[in-house]
Structures are given as C-alpha cells and as structure tokens.
C-alpha cells in the first residue's frame, strides 16, 4: 500500500518514530508473530485505539512504544485490514510532540467526519509536580484530523480540560474518549473519570461539530461497586439493549467474577436518548480468562458489532518470550457481539472460517484416562469439542484438554461438572515468572454436556464456551515445537472433535 507523503506538519519526533519502526520491523520474521492476531509493529503495544471503518478499511490504532518492548512514552501505532485478520502496518499516527501531550498520547477513538476526514480523539498527558513534590499526570482531551495515513493535531488542543469538569472531578484521572455521531448529526463522547470519592464514573460530553465540546452529565457512576477508576469505555446499542463496556482498575472478586484486578466489565441496560439516561439492568465480566483488557468495538458494514481487546493483563506482563525481544503485545481475535437472555455473547468473526484449511474430525470418541487422536495437533488451530457422559455411565468427575504440549510443557483447560467450574491453566507452559497462571469460571452445562471452541494462534488461546456464552483468553509463550493436543477424563466421557488448521 502506498502510504503517502509526510505532511509539512509532521514533527521530528513522529518522523524519527516512523523511521525507527520501519527499520526495526524488518528484523522480525513473520513466523515470530501471531498469524491472524494484530501484534506490535515493533516494541510495545497495549490498548486498541481508534478502531473504526474508514475509506473501506478497518483501521486499528494502538498504544505504542516503538523503541522498547516494555511500556514507555505513548505513541499511536497504526494498521489497516479488510478482513480483521490480515493486518498491514501503516506509519505511526501520533507521537508525544506538543506541550499538551509531551508525556504521552493516550487512548481514544476515531470517527469519519461529514467532509470525509478521519477524526482522532485522544488523551494528552503532561506530568506536573504538585505542592507536596509528587509528580502527577494531568490528562486532557485532544484532536487530530487526517486522511487515513497522516494526521495533523488540532490547533485549538486541548478541546477538553479541567475547566470543563465540575468541581471535585479529577483532572488526573480523565481519559479514554469514545466518540460517536447521533442521528441528528451532532457528536457525543464518553470519558472515564474519578470523582472526589475515588470511585469511577463515566462522563458524557456533546459537540455540534466534533471540535467544540461541552460537558453534559454523568452517564454512569460506579459507587465503589466494581473496582475504582473506570478506563476505556465504549457505549452502543445491541439487540434492543444498550451496552456499556469499561475496564475497571483494582477490582475485588465477586464469587467467580472479576478476578483479574484490572479487569473488564459489561453493563447491559436501556438508554433514553432524549435525556441521555442509561439505566443498568445487569452486569458481567467481558472475558473470564487471564489476558483481556480495554476492548473497543466497531460497527461493520453489514451491521455486526465487532470487538477487539488488548490480549494481555497488566499484572502478567512479565510473561513473554526471550526469543523475540523486539515486540510485545497483541490484540484479541475480533469477536461478534450479541445479547441473549440479558447476557453478552461473543463469537469469533465469521471471517475466521476463510482461514480454515485441513479438517480432521472424530465422533463419539470414548475418553477414560489420557487419549491422543491422530491428526489432532497444531498451534494455529480452530478446535471444536463437545463432551457428554458416556452412554450408560454416571457423571464424570473431570474432563481436560491439553494443548501447546510436548514432553515437558503444556497449557490446559479442565472442567469439573459437579462444581460447574471451567479452569484455564498455563502454569506448566514454561514460564520463568511466578505470575498469575490460572483462572476459574462458572459455566452452564446440562448433565455434563458442554460445548467448547478453542482458537490457537502461536502465542495465545481463546476459549468460547457454549456458543459464546463465555470466553476465556490466555497468552502462552511455549516454544512453537510444542504443538501436541491431548484429552483426559476422570470417569467416562463421549467426545466429538472437529479440528481445522488455520492460516
């Protein structure tokens, strides 16, 4: 793809980042990356930003530190795709090069303006020394406008700062704008914030043109229910309901929910657009695995609501491979969203089926103890499993599948029907760090009957339970030679398996 010429307004900071990423990318072999998950062009990647459809392509920006595979001064990386699975890198879109964002261009979103330009809205960060000597990050909201490759920061930035906030609302926790356009042509955005009580809240702002912004109201308040600060909100209609997604920090577990500390939250309810009133009806985790944070969604041309998250956990960033030190961080599989029975369902995008190659299938396989099946192996794999108690046998005690397996290492997924507990476990995956390796979730089943779909892509697994009722995501950096898959039952299980090679 021809990426166009850098504009005269492109800063030296951005030019240097673009030059560096272009050279560094050439040192990373394609087989050292995920095959169909977007990873950092080079260096560090975290939150998805500006996930949008523009000029016939999906655009994904992301939090980006090109110079190191660890977190650093935030830029916006940039990639485009036509199918959400094959991504082409474009030059970095934003760099911390202005007085209002010199310490980082943080998360935000994107939208197409009426005149055809691409509008980015992001959080600018400046460190400020307080009277007590402590350094704090002042956060403001900023704009940049471009053509899909090059972006020019708005001359009147920042467009929202502490002067736009009611008294008691934090200027240090004020970030991650998500913008959308209303039917009347005006614009709205929601932004995460902390009030004086230290809990999280989501603020609503409005604009007639996308450039002039004013505070409207508190859309949703936490009241210390789900963690503290609410980051990276998203807000959209889905299947007759209204959905608010956000990523709370410092969450406390509630039963089997919200065990990630920095986790994900889905609130489902109704929205009265005339009064901008969101009424909550139910809540849940978005992902029940280990590695998922800060998702964003986009509406596809055919009307599907598609979500991608950062496939990582802030508390487990020490889990990485020493074999590929030039990049770190990847995005989740794009997922189609639906509401069923007041619950968020997620499935891999239908485009994934286009990657399916060789098929291997088995029906009614008896599993008692360990079982290996000819042709069932791989690290780029779409694996569908259905299990049930063997005919005439009582309920089994445990079922497990191991993958990314060799003689020494493996990651496993296990289910105990009497407890209704599904567990993902990577403690034997070859990690050099004593970090979080397990996560458990309550799942629905009927007399031990369970449906699982595992998507493997070199360094990750995403488990879709009961046609998307729940999802568990985990990264693992076991050597690629470990491609075995095996099954186990304590008791007697009858199993159907269909495996597709992907790529």
Helix- and strand-based class? mainly beta
How many helices? The count is: 1
Number of E-state strands:
31
- Oligomer state equals single chain
What is the mean pLDDT?
Answer: 95
Q: How would you characterize the overall build of this protein?
A:
With 503 residues, this protein is mainly β. Among the domains are: 1-119 and 126-157, Tachylectin-2, Chain A; 352-502, Jelly Rolls (Sandwich), CATH 2.60.120.560. It is 3% helix and 50% strand. It contains one helix and 31 strands. The protein has one helix at 12-25; strands at residues 43-54, 57-65, 75-81, 88-94, 105-112, 118-129, 135-146, 151-153, 174-181, 187-193, 201-207, 214-221, 230-238, 241-248, 265-272, 277-284, 293-299, 305-310, 327-328, 335-340, 343-348, 356-371, 380-389, 398-405, 411-416, 421-425, 438-442, 450-457, 460-465, 470-475, 484-502. Strands 22, 23, 24, 25, 26, 27, 28, 29, 30 and 31 form a ten-stranded antiparallel beta sheet that branches. The chain has a five-stranded mixed beta sheet with strand order 4-3-2-1-19. A hairpin with a 7-residue loop joins strand 10 (187-193) and strand 11 (201-207). The longest helix has 14 residues, at 12-25. The chain is globular, with a radius of gyration of 23 Å.
